[in-house]
Design a protein that fits this description.
Distance between the termini: 26 Å
Domain EAL: 24-279
Strand content: 15-25%
Bound molecules: ligand C2E, magnesium ion
Number of helices: 15
Largest sheet: 8 strands, mixed, barrel
Order of helices and strands: HHHEEEHHEHHEHHEHEHHEHEHH
Strand order of the largest sheet: 1-2-4-5-6-7-8-9
Structural class: alpha/beta
Radius of gyration: 19 Å
Number of strands: 9
């Protein structure tokens, strides 16, 4: 796995730096420059289907190759870009890059291409009138069928209702899939499933971390797969790092898994898909 790990060395910088007065303002200005100088990259992480081991979907994740700081994690700059509004421009660039990549896979791989690409969308993007129109324009430009795109939104981004939920309904009308990200860590998880159009539940890594121990998280993970199936939603387990976790999730009925065990996010789009081949043996071990 060494080669795979080398592709995802984004790290957090020190909390001291984070908290220093003015740091966010400075970073905000640097994001503007970084957009102009093409310092952002999109990396791709496979979402694997059990028991086949096929890469059913891919999540696009943004990276910042900062000339001085090195690879900066989105955890550090996405919130800053949200606050100064640059997430709108950055987000549109990420969306366009990811949709064009997905269209390329479809052209080059045909039936072997993943079913969809998943793109993270922030609260600020969802709150804009016209976001759905932007998405419609981007997928049209890429020549991508709408169901081949999923937008990942957090519970927090849609909790307050308003324009965010209007936008999600517009996206749903286009045929774009909606994934609730980090599910179970936000405000009012289950109620949201009635008020927001959702196709995919992404069960948060925190439930996966302790899945192999008999405890609350395992019980919740089991309940969530039942809720998903009962409501006709797809469920993706996030942050699967070990074979034991994959086996436990498979036993509970999870069919879509994402995590370092299957593949790290990587810049090379074809390498992101080739991990499926590497995991065939893992998949065989999961078969009954
Ligand atoms: P997320 O959308 O929940 O993405 C999953 C995060 O978990 C990614 O971190 C991914 O690299 C990491 N991950 C995947 N598998 C494993 C695993 O097995 N173990 C561990 N420890 N981590 C795993 P990343 O790329 O650093 O992104 C962090 C968060 O930043 C994302 O969480 C998302 O909320 C946000 N983000 C990333 N890219 C974008 C983007 O393009 N737009 C927006 N708005 N937000 C983004
Ligand atoms: Mg996500
Ligand atoms: Mg997530
Ligand atoms: Mg998460």
């Amino acid at each position: 796995y060494a080669a795979k790990q080398a592709g995802d060395t984004a790290r957090r910088w020190s909390p001291a730096l984070d908290e220093r007065a003015g740091e966010h303002t400075r970073l905000g200005g640097e994001i503007r420059l970084a957009l102009d100088h093409g310092q952002f990259r999109v990396v791709y992480q496979p979402i694997v289907e059990l028991p086949s081991g096929r890469v059913a979907a891919v999540e696009a994740l943004v990276r910042w190759e900062h000339p001085q700081r090195g690879l900066v994690s989105p955890v550090d700059f996405v919130p800053v870009a949200e606050r100064n509004g640059l997430i709108v421009e950055l987000g549109e660039w990420i969306l366009r890059t990811a949709c064009h990549q997905m269209a390329t896979w479809r052209r080059e791989l045909g039936e072997q291409a993943p079913d969809r690409i998943s793109v993270n969308v922030s609260a600020r993007q969802l709150a804009r009138h016209g976001f759905a129109a932007t998405v419609a324009a981007v997928i049209a430009e890429a020549g991508l069928p709408a169901p081949c795109l999923a937008v990942e939104v957090t519970e927090t981004a849609v909790f307050e209702g308003g324009q965010a939920v209007v936008t999600l309904n517009e996206l749903r009308d286009l045929g774009v899939r909606i994934a609730l990200d980090d599910f179970g860590t936000g405000h009012s998880s289950l109620n949201l499933l009635q008020t927001v159009p959702v196709d995919i539940l992404k069960v948060d890594k925190s439930f996966v971390d302790t899945i192999t121990e008999a405890g609350r998280h395992a019980v919740i993970a089991e309940a969530l797969i039942q809720v998903s199936h009962g409501l006709g939603l797809a469920a993706v387990a996030e942050g699967v790092e070990t074979a034991a976790q994959a086996e436990a999730l498979h036993r509970l009925g999870y069919r879509l898994l994402q995590g370092y065990y299957f593949g790290r996010p990587v810049a090379d789009p074809n390498f992101a898909l080739s991990t499926a081949v590497a995991t065939q043996d893992h998949m065989r071990a999961l078969r009954p």
